[in-house]
Amino acid sequence: MQFTEIISLAGYAIEAVGVLVIVVGSCICSVVFVRTFRQLPEGSAYRTYRQQLGRSIILGLEFLIAGDIIRTVVVADTLENVAILGLIILIRSFLSVTLHLEAEGRWPWQTEQFHTK
Fold it and tell me: Do the beta carbons of residue 66 and residue 86 sit within 8 Å?
């Protein structure tokens, strides 16, 4: 097996971990929501569910970005592929920032002390 094949497989494995994080996180959040939504104050369970779901999606996106970077830079290092990678990272980063805002109620660069609910 050649070096590029190993790196390509590593990139796909990291992306698979990202998908797995999103799927498992979504399932866990959903189960917890179904089990607790009647026990928590009105609206609290839904807000918690969305926050936890957003966090699992953000973490999964980080793995997906890492896998894309590894495969593009090492395996397919043409200018076209790097441009496509840049666009993918831009879109996924935008999603991560907006999901963070929704899950945490603050921008990623704001400290906890500015957080208000």
Answer: no
- Structural domain range at position 88: 3-114
53 three-class SS? helix
Which residue, chain included where needed, has tokens 């980080």? 62
Give the pLDDT score at 13: 96
Kindly report the average pLDDT of the chain as a whole number. Answer: 85
The confidence score (pLDDT) of residue 113 equals: 60
51, pLDDT greater than 70: yes
Q: How many domains does the chain have?
A: 1
- 105: exposed, middle or buried (Cβ count in 10 Å: 0-12, 13-18, 19+): middle
Short-list 26, 22, 27, 46, CA closest to 36: 46
Structural contact between residues 52 and 36, judged by C-beta atoms closer than 8 angstroms: no
Q: Which residue has the higher pLDDT, 101 or 59?
A: 59
Tell which residue, 113, 109, 92, has the closest CA to residue 101. Answer: 109
> What is the rounded CA–CA span in Å between residue 22 and residue 52?
11
